[in-house]
Please model this.
Amino acid sequence: MVAVKDLPKEKYLLPGTTACQGCPHALGLKALGMALGEKAVLVVPAGCTTIISGIREKASLKLPLLHVPFASAPAVATGLGSAFKKLGKDGIPVVWMGDGGSDIGFATLSGACVRKDDMIVVVSDNEAYMNTGIQTSGTTFWKARTTTSPTGKREEKKDLALIMLMHKADYVATASVGYLQDFIEKLKRASEIEGFRFIHLHSPCPPGWGFDSAETVEVARMAVKCGAWILWEFDGKFKISAQSKPYRDKEKRLPLADYLKRQRRFRHLSDEDIAEIEKRIDEQWRIISALEKVF
Amino acid sequence: MKKVLTGNYAIAEAVKLAKTEFIAAYPITPQTTIVERLAEIVERGELNADFVRVESEHSALAAVYGASAGGLRAFTATSSHGLLYMYEMCWWVANSRLPVVMALVTRTIGPPWNIHTDHTDLLTLRDSGWILAMSENAQEALDLTLIGFKVAEQIDLPFAIGLDGFQVSHTAEVVDVPEQEEIDRFLPERRRDRPFVIEPGNPITVGGLTTNECSMRIRKDMMRDMERVGDLVRNSGYVRDYDLVERYRLEDAEYVVVMMGAWSGDAKDAIDILRDEGVGIGMLRLRFVRPFPAKEIAELDCRKILVVERASSIGKGGIIATEVKSVANSPAQSVVAGLGGVDVGVDDFVAMFRRFVEGELKEWWP
Model:
């Protein structure tokens, strides 16, 4: 485990950004700067980070940053990565996008992965289109209320990380803003591998999910501790990460209702709904545990 | 050296001569043979470029955008629906001032599906900020591609070269291909720092939120720079001289036809026939749509102008005609013809021009 005292002191996300209080993206970007430093070159499609990065002539990120159309980011990174290699520059194109970018740009994500183009893609997933005001996305949790699913989403959450694993990405991991050291370690490991690297970062959003802005880290950790978000990594070998390992044992998991009821988007859930969600979480653990054996 | 090349192979040859460093493209008829040929050229080691087989046209131009922002000379090619699919990126590239070059093999927009030429696809780029050229034959397709790289990199605007699907793209002609040394002298290595370069350790932000005034200034600056393109084309130093227009038998012409693209060749034959009959007719052929050759059109001093085009704006009529009428000092009329690749040959043009001269031509042909 990387020690906090050993992390670089240089700040790549400057203080005083336009991020909401308790913003998970701001936490993630801070960690990204610590992990990759000067090597990182950001490619950012439309989303909350468009706002967080600042309005000309102020910029909050001390990293090169190319803003790009919503569905285009991995393809732009393909071109940039090619330029770095051809011109002998030691940089890593890092696509930083939300779950919205990975919905509308799914073909682009797939294409870049299939070609094994040289980049790290981080999907900072706050489980809805938050920048436009909390609309349902492909990764919105089942039953969660959003402004376009006012009685709760009817479809299952899309499992992006497993999809990318089956795309044969060179590196795939899930991470959480509740465990930034783990995220930093995964970014560092990803940066040591060549090719297409994908990290699905769980990013609880205070205004979008309806919890107090002081509780982002706590809510993120509860998601892991109740087993709803499983941290794992594939770097040639599939393994469940240390922070999630204890929760393979269902007995050790936090009560699911504690996590769900903490959030306004789930306040309407019945006991049956929660029992159904629990069943789906058990099923997810069965799949992840099986993958650990076969991969 | 003289070679027998189709329009598409002529484009590939130009991309190779330009020492293009990055190519991304998605196949679409009738553009496909450009990228097939380029893939061969790259895999044979004749061109030191990265060739990326992207999963869509949107990604083709997105990848080219990234490569160009990183400092590389970059190229793509498409047609019709492919262009419409990458349309968002077209505007992004233009406002970013990146000197990307694209070949556009013109093809009808569906439905119904139709792979044959008309120019409506090209004209969807009209307002975007791309320099828009339209070639008449394979020679021009090659020459304008090379001039395109030079001018785009001089003025930081993207450059599209139109060529008619099948009529130019798949028709083999004798093409005079310049020597590599000539092109090396004509087209130096791309200046990597213009208009900006995205690279590690250089913390700049490009394309982010800004003030409304800044957004407006970007478009105003593009307009100012676009107006310099005519001079850059005329003084490019290329092995052959080029201008925004071609003037064909315009001296003492009472009647002037304005058109662009491959069918202009047939129209010139028709003009020759009518000239032999004593009709004072000539042609101003548009080699560029953007910048629009307004001065050249305003200078026409004749009884009547006819704009013949295979493009239409539903609810208005001919697109080029609308523009010609806005600057012409002689009366101009419009005819829309050849949409969907409908064949218009020499005989048609003879009949069309006769009716025009006699004042009996309607707005749609046939």
User: Anything to note?
Assistant: The CA atoms of residues 30 and 151 of chain B lie 26 Å apart.
